[in-house]
Every structure is written in structure tokens, then in C-alpha cells.
């Protein structure tokens, strides 16, 4: 399969992702739902200045304060477990067993990803399994509502504001809609991309002219592209202490997650 990167990210979009959250200083954050509608009105002005067009602004207008997202953000217990406990809870043995079968069923596709991006099949497959059970459950929260709620919430608004802008631009491009479902933190698709990263690193792997993170081919190629762009060194190791381990950290900041991916990936590739 010929895999091509879709060159759809405008210069403004890339620059925006590098801007500090102060770019949206007119939109005052809050820790309850009471100020969300006022925040949306203020944020809409900043989004428009950043290049968000009518479809994205309409999606912002219809966004609802996501109470379940806030509850999930305050209760991320699994990343505090020991590595052994974390892997048990997340079903590591099942991911490895199913991952080996998936690689065996479609070796050419995974080989093509490694040729183009340098990322071994095991790493991509482990992330796919860890994030959504290989697409079995990609989330039941409205992406735009979830990510804008986190951008409004004072706890980590600096981090989520660029991703909220990214989500609105994805709506403009037709990649998602206001109703698209994803994880509670606004991640979308097979490997749970945050919207700003989806905008920047998305790849049209199946050649249909659009990047669709709910297409397995596009999502996995985009994941490989993300890791390569974050510094993955082809042919180098990815276990703790090896050159590529720090790149896994770019995908998820939790050490227990990073170690689990490295362990599962090695077993899948073995």
C-alpha cells in the first residue's frame, strides 16, 4: 500500500499550536459550568482570529459543558498503579496475543509503515490495542464539547486551548463534526489523537483524499508519522534507556504507560 502524507495543514495552524494559551486571554477560564457559555462567546472571537471558519464556530456554539470529562480529568487513577497492576488492568496479555495475530494478518501494511516512518509494527499495534482495544471502543463523548470544556477549565487550559482550536479546524475541514464521538479528554479515532495533533500529523494512508482518524489505515499511519516527527530514530531501540523510549513519552506522559507500550511492543514483534 502506498502511503502518502496529506499536506493539508496551513501555516497558520502550525503556528497556532506553538502559541501560548495567552492568545486566548479574552476568554476567562472557570471551574464550574456557570461561565461556560460566556467563555464560548469570548473564545469564538479568538478562534475566528486564529482562522477558524463558520463550521468550526458553529460547532463551538453548540458545544455543551462536559461534566463527565471533568470527572474523568480529576480521577485518572490507573496511571498511579505499579507497572504490573497497570498492565493487568489494561489487558496487556490480550493486547499482545491479538496484536501478533493482527500483524500476521496484514504484514505488508505494517511493513510499509516501518519503511516510511521507521517505527516497528509492535509499537503501533501496542498503542492501538492500549488506546481503543484495536478500535473496539473509541469513546462515547462528543469531541468538541469535551475538548472545549477542558480548554475552559482552569486546571489545564494552557494545554488544551490549542487542541480546542485544532478541533474546530478539523470541523472546518470536514474531518469531524460537532457530533463526532471520542474519549472523555477529546481524543479521537483508533489511537486517540488529541485534536491539535490530529490536525498537524494526520496522514491520508488509504488515498481517499481525506484524513479520517476513524479509518484504521489513516489512524495508524498518522500515529507512525507523529512518532517519527517527534524524533523516532529508525533502527534504534525503544526500551527504557534506549534512544526511542523518550519518543513514546511524547505520546503519553505517564511512565507506567510508556513502559507498558515498550514491553508489549517487544513481545508483539518477537
TrEMBL record:
**Domain (Transglycosylase SLT): residue spans on this chain:** 36-239
Q: Its Gene Ontology molecular function terms? A: peptidoglycan lytic transglycosylase activity
Q: Which UniProt keywords apply?
A: Lyase, Signal
| Example GO biological process | peptidoglycan catabolic process
Q: Does the keyword Lyase apply?
A: yes
One Pfam family from the record: SLT_2
CDD domains, A to Z? Slt35-like
Q: Which principal EC class is assigned to this enzyme?
A: lyase
What Enzyme Commission number(s) does the record list for this chain? 4.2.2.-
Decide whether keyword Kinase is in the record: no
What superkingdom heads the lineage? Bacteria
Q: Where is the signal peptide?
A: 1-26
Alphabetical list of PANTHER family matching this protein = LYTIC MUREIN TRANSGLYCOSYLASE, MEMBRANE-BOUND LYTIC MUREIN TRANSGLYCOSYLASE B
Q: Under which name does UniProt file this protein?
A: Membrane-bound lytic murein transglycosylase B
**Name of the gene encoding the protein in the UniProt record:** mltB_1
